[in-house]
Structure formats: structure tokens, C-alpha cells
Amino acid sequence: MDFGELRNDDKFTKTVNNFSSALDKIEKSLSTAVDLKDFDELSTQEKVKLDNYLAYAINSLYWMHVKLRGDDPNEVANIYQNHLINYFVYQLQHGIKNELSRVRQTIVRDKQIYEHNTIRPVIDKAAAGRFIKHGLHVRFDEDGERLTENSSNNEMNKDTVITSSTIP
């Protein structure tokens, strides 16, 4: 690129070169998406993601165009409220912020719909461990006979008999 008198301004040349390379990457990505030949063979989810991508990319490019022209894309059309036709023309030119917001909402909604399909119940390992520990633990006496809950308490009490003489 020929920058003329601005070629000595490193910050400006670096910014313009970065912008140019970013536009090249966007162009390559968009051309790949637009030239997709087997769109009909895509699943519904893939079609929605592609459409959202294209809508967001095109609106973002338009937002960049408005910024490069020196206009403020966030501006509200207060000036043209008295002139209805000019107001609509202005909204078409600068309604990009609302359009980008709308596209973002569709992307969020898409994530909610399709991530809901992948949400699986999560097992609480600590609770499962407690269930297993208390529910499946079976005690046996010295003879190998199964002890019930009442008999295990009696067996445990035989070993630890507290008498009044042992209490201080």
C-alpha cells in the first residue's frame, strides 16, 4: 500500500495493514460460507448456525463501513423526526446497532435450543457414595452370620459396657 505522506507514521500504517489483513480473512471466510454447495444436505442446526454467522458477519461489515465513513452507528435519529421520509432513510442507514442486537439475540436463542439437547443429568458422586455406604453395608458376626441393625447394636454394646464404677 502506498501511504504517501503518512508512510512515516508507524501507528497509522500498522493500523491500516492490520485492518486490511482482517478484511482479507473475513472475505475468505465469507466466500467459503457463501460458496457452500451442499447447503441442502446440512442439518437444521448447521443451517441455523450458518445463517446466523452470515447475518452477523454482513451486519458487522456494514457497521465497519458506517464507522469508516465517520458516522456514529450508535446514534439515534433525533434530527429527522420531523421529516418522516428522511427518518426512515436514516434508520435504514444507521439502524445497524439494532440489527446487530437482534442477530445476537438469535444466536443466544440458538445456543439455548441446541445446548438444551446436550445437557445431561449430572451424578452427585458424594451423595451416591453415601447411599452405597449406608445402604449396602452389611455386617457379619464372628460366626459369619448376618447381623441385623438391632443385633449389631447389641453386639457393639457387649464390648463397651459402662458401669457406674468406671464413671468418674
UniProtKB/TrEMBL annotation:
A Gene Ontology molecular function term of the record: DNA binding
GO biological process, one term: maturation of 5.8S rRNA
Region (Disordered): 146-168
Iron as UniProt keyword: no
The keyword Cytoplasm appears for this protein: yes
Pfam families: Sas10_Utp3
Compositionally biased tracts (Polar residues): 149-168
Keywords annotated in UniProt: Cytoplasm, DNA-binding, Nucleus, RNA-binding, rRNA processing
Subcellular location: Cytoplasm; Nucleus, Nucleolus; Nucleus
Domain of life: Eukaryota
Predominant location: cytoplasm
Subunit structure as annotated in this protein's UniProt entry: Monomer and homodimer.
Function noted in UniProt: Plays a role in the recruitment of the exosome to pre-rRNA to mediate the 3'-5' end processing of the 5.8S rRNA.
The protein's name in its UniProt record: Nuclear nucleic acid-binding protein C1D
Naturally occurring in which organism (per UniProt): Bactrocera latifrons (Malaysian fruit fly)
Lineage per the UniProt record: Eukaryota, Metazoa, Ecdysozoa, Arthropoda, Hexapoda
Originating gene: c1d_1
